[in-house]
Amino acid sequence: MEHTDPITLQVIREGLVSLCRSMGYTMSRTAYSPILSEGFDFSCALFDGTGEMVAQAEFNPVHLGSMPYAVEWSVKEIGLDNLEPGDVILHNDAYRGGTHLTDFTMMAPVFFQGRLVAIPATRGHQIDVGGMAPGGFPGDATEIFQEGLRVPPVRVHRRGREVEDIWKMLLANIRVPHIIHGDFRAMFGSLKTAERKIYDYCNKYGVQRFEQALIDIKDYSERRMRKEIARLPDGIYEFEDVLDDDGISDVPLTIKCRLIVDGEIVVADFDGSSAQCDGPVNATFGVTASQVYSVLFMISDPSLPSNHGCFRPIKILAPPGSVVNANYPAAVFGGNVETSSRIMDVLLGCFAQCVPERVVGSSFGTCQNFTAGSPHDELDEYSIIYIYHEGGWGARATRDGLTAEINPVGNDMNQPVEIFESRFPWLYHEYTLNENSGGPGRHRGGLGIRQRLELRSDVGTMSLIADRFKNPPYGVLGGRSPNPSECRHYNDFRIKMPTSETFEHVSELFGTVSPSKWARKRIHKGTVVENTTTGGGGYGNPYERDPSYVRNDVIDGYVTRDSALDDYGVVLDDSNVIDPDATRHIRSDGHK
Amino acid sequence: MSFNESRAEEFSTGMRYAEPIHKCFCCGRLIPSEPVVAKMHGLDREFCSEDCVSVYNTYRLPYWREGTGEP
Questions:
Q1: Which helix (H) or strand (E) holds B64?
Q2: Which of B6, B7, B23 to mutate to test the interface with A (most CBs of A within 10 A)?
Q3: Residues whose CB falls within 8 Å of the CB of residue A524, separated by 6 or more in sequence, listed in order
Q4: Closest by alpha carbon to A238, among A255, A253, A252, A256?
Q5: Among residues A213, A214, A257, which one has the least CA distance to residue A236?
């Protein structure tokens, strides 16, 4: 078969990306849970008949980089020859190419004229997966069995009919089966959307030409990625960062990477990272790999089509039994959200030495995953919430960091207050920017947020997996870390009991080892929870920041007057007018 | 008989069920199908691909020898 001509190749390639976007819109419009319909905590991709990814839309990076491992495992465990038209496979097992148990991957082989031509797949975060904590994220889990139900690749539809036995077994182990079943059907709907469009392509181009285009698309991406890597300065770049703790002990965990750029190839070697831990912040190989891919994409030409071809010149070495590649049956729930964040930080730290003009300072470094289950008195049903919080991203070479954004590993959206309050027994008291939380720099880190919510039902059970309470995000090229809060934390979580006047940490109230990782804490009506996130690291020397920018930040409430003086060396009078002589004197006298 | 067929048969005939937890000796990923077996230091080692055998010989081994003294 001849190679696809360049114009047809681009038409099909962009069309397949559009197909993946359409899958996503189907998901968001038909899902039951706001985590999918509003938060977009899902991803959609298209795989070829061999199980290699050929297209994806711009959804969740940690899903998209790791989904290929789940799809590959599924088709190999079940066997391509055993797949039939109308089959649908479901899978969430972290120890079969998955990430953490709430992320289910659903895929359906598409046959045309009796031939397997493509496998659309979608991964969606389900609001519950059973296990010890409502909504998941059990911060004190020590093995995967406590984290929920493991589902190895199983066919939930066979020859177009639902396999009722599997569904009953699955939904019987979940706290909100009516929600989850609806969300699974939304995922199925997105696969049907893809199937129709794949038929259109096969009818238009013919099966053989379509299949050849899928091969050529991957090869094109490989060539583009190799060129991107070839433009990087060859060398060995090393960086390390830490996670605060694992929730079981208060010992920090090191993530270390040795990045080798050699011609057209990149090797990311995580040798030297901490051994896997008792708590639930171990990452699977797929999580670690997804972050390597994500960061490569972040520093590359954004028009580079993301698919299996891009992965070929990238090698990831993750020692088994380490926190970046845990061995069965270690707990892994937080690996996909917290350790993944730190892996991204470490890789950006490596690339900051290699191509500083293309990287950002580190972000607030957590998804600050807060879950709670409670009866909803008005709707007469059990409800589960999952909030991943926004924070500040690191500053860039050309501008300030993004403010109040979802963690870069997620690329999701928040759940609007109005939707949230109408669906769940919680009332928002506050949702504001966290003043002075951006890391000082010539370009300032973006700001974090503060949320206060009150439980309106009689009783609730809450859990948290978060990080960077004790260790701040770093800055780049003289940019600095954000300033800590009064209690010396960066990100933070506190609660105010109904009988109390003050906010306290869970570690103080319940005696947990970690303030950022715990599970199943019972609270009652009127309890207010406070989530605070920090900002991102700064970029460049803060004394080089234009004083007028600092003044504007003070007027906007982003930076305090004290910080303007202490961190930026800018002197303002009571009317926020800059004193140029005093500012020049301080800046020439001292260098932060 | 394929790797998966043999595994399925092993399970279905009532023999001991085992989690598929073979990891690549080079990159560390779980191996989803038939591993590539290569002799390293006199021992049979399982790899996820020929590519990983090559990376092990050209990068991993020299680095260990120069850096940490392992294996």
A1: helix B61-66
A2: B23
A3: A455, A458, A459, A460, A497, A498
A4: A256
A5: A257
User: Are the C-beta atoms of A315 and B55 separated by less than 8 Å?
Assistant: yes
Nearest to A76 among B21, B28, B32 (CB): B32
Q: Which pair of tokens denotes residue A404?
A: 């109040």
Question: In sequence order, which residues have a C-beta less than 8 Å from that of residue A80 and are 6 or more positions away?
Answer: A49, A50, A51, A116
Of A132, A120, A112, A153, nearest to A54 by C-alpha is: A120
pLDDT at A377: 82
Residues of chain A in contact with residue B59, where contact means CB-CB under 8 angstroms, are 260, 267, 269
In the chain, the amino acid numbered A467 is D
Q: A278 near A310, Cβ under 8 Å?
A: no
A4-28: per-residue pLDDT in tens? Answer: 999 999 999 999 999 999 999 999 9
Spatial CB neighbours of A429, under 8 Å, sequence gap ≥ 6: A452, A453, A454, A528
Q: Please state, in angstroms and rounded to a whole number, the distance separating the CA atoms of residues A366 and A410.
A: 10
| DSSP secondary structure letter of residue A226 | H
Cβ pair A8, A204 in contact under 8 A: no
d(C-alpha A103, C-alpha A100), whole Å: 6
ipTM confidence score: 0.89
Q: Report yes or no: A122 and A128 within 8 Å, Cβ to Cβ.
A: no
Residues A362, A388, A333, A71, Cα dihedral to 10°: -90
CA distance A448 to chain B (A): 35
Helix (H) or strand (E) holding A295, with range, is: helix A285-298
Residue A515's Cβ-side half-sphere holds a number of Cα atoms within 13 Å equal to 20
pTM: 0.95
Q: How long is chain A?
A: 592
Contact across the interface for A96 and B20, Cβ inside 8 Å: yes
Q: Which whole number is the average pLDDT over A295-312?
A: 94
Contact A571, A550 (CB under 8 A): no
Nearest to A267 among B21, B33, B59 (CB): B59
Q: Cβ–Cβ contacts within 10 Å for residue A253, how many?
A: 26
In chain A, the residue whose alpha carbon lies closest to the alpha carbon of B29 is A285
